[in-house]
Write a structure and sequence with these properties.
Blueprint lengths: L28 H25 L3 E8 L5 H8 L8 E5 L5 H4 L5 H4 L8 E5 L8 H4 L5 H4 L2 H14 L2 E9 L2 H13 L9 H7 L2 H14 L7 E5 L3 H19 L17
Parallel strand pairs: 1-3, 1-4, 2-3, 4-5
Helix pairs in contact: 1-11, 2-11
The structure holds adenosine monophosphate and magnesium ion (MG).
Length: 267
């Protein structure tokens, strides 16, 4: 099994020591792209079986700093998959109604149902990240959320959902380059906001929040993967490898036909 970047949370780690550069894991971009495409073909076939089987569920959580590559990952990884079997859900700042409930209410409503793959573009983890860094609620509210999240994910797991969580790890320098590209190209302006620059000033605080989140919420039933994400082609491959590996392990099967088709002739 190639390098998966699954976090070994029992070992002490610092996020700044975990690689953002994928080149050291795969020196050859062409080969990486070839492998990625082959795996994507397998993903499409496995997804069809998952959907037909209509029993198990897969939840993929994507978290990253702004410009970290969540949208690009979704575009590349899900290309060619039957849209009927996938639900992509983005989480923005909560509405008034959402804020009037507990933080998991809006999340739980949209977890994947039987046979489905759910992809979260941001997630319940924002409630221990942006919320913490910008003091949107006091520590007495956000700190217990680590345990609440772990229990919630255990419930999903025990109800037949495999949970994969990817943190797309880019360097501050790479974010700067990607912001600059968005600034320079009018067709990319829609992806950019001054608020993104505001958040960039809090980079060390975000890293501290991510670090604690990774430490507290890496569980056997819902592991975190810290993906070196400075190179998009490596990021795509690393994530695809883990998804396909997981689906192979889930091993979904086409169900038996409900009727006996022996001797059936279509007139
Ligand atoms: P984007 O992903 O660029 O569309 O931005 C969505 C914004 O919503 C980001 O700035 C997030 O930090 C913010 N957001 C998502 N979830 C929450 C949350 N639970 N509380 C506050 N802000 C959030
Ligand atoms: Mg944004």
């Amino acid at each position: 099994m190639p390098q998966t970047h699954q976090l070994d949370w029992q070992r002490p780690f610092q996020l700044q020591d975990l690689p953002t550069d994928g080149k050291q894991f795969h020196p050859n971009r062409d080969e990486a792209e070839t492998e990625f495409k082959a795996l994507r073909t397998e993903f499409v076939a496995l997804q069809e079986r998952l959907y037909a089987e209509d029993k198990q569920k897969l939840l993929i959580v994507l978290q990253a700093m702004d410009a970290g590559g969540k949208d690009g990952t979704i575009r590349n990884v899900l290309k060619g998959v039957n849209p009927q079997g996938v639900r992509v859900q983005s989480f923005k700042a909560p509405s008034k109604e959402e804020l009037a409930h507990d933080f998991l209410w809006r999340i739980h409503k949209v977890v994947p149902t039987r046979g489905m793959i759910g992809v979260f573009n941001r997630s319940h983890y924002e409630d221990v990240l942006v919320v913490r860094v910008h003091n949107l609620v006091p520590e007495s509210v956000w700190r217990p959320r680590y345990t609440q999240i772990n229990q919630f994910e255990k419930l999903l797991h025990d109800s037949g959902t495999r949970v994969l969580k990817f943190y797309l790890h880019i360097s501050a320098a790479e974010q700067k380059e990607r912001f600059q590209a968005r600034l320079d190209d009018p067709e990319k302006h829609w992806k950019f906001s001054l608020e993104d620059l505001e958040k960039r000033k809090f980079w060390p605080d975000y890293m501290a929040a991510y670090e604690e989140m990774l430490r507290e919420c890496s569980t056997e039933w819902a592991p975190w993967y810290v993906i070196p994400a400075n190179q998009k082609w490596y990021r795509n491959l690393a994530i695809m490898r883990t998804i396909v590996h997981t689906l192979r392990d889930m091993n979904p099967q086409f169900p038996e036909a409900e009727d006996n088709f022996d001797g059936v002739v279509i007139e």
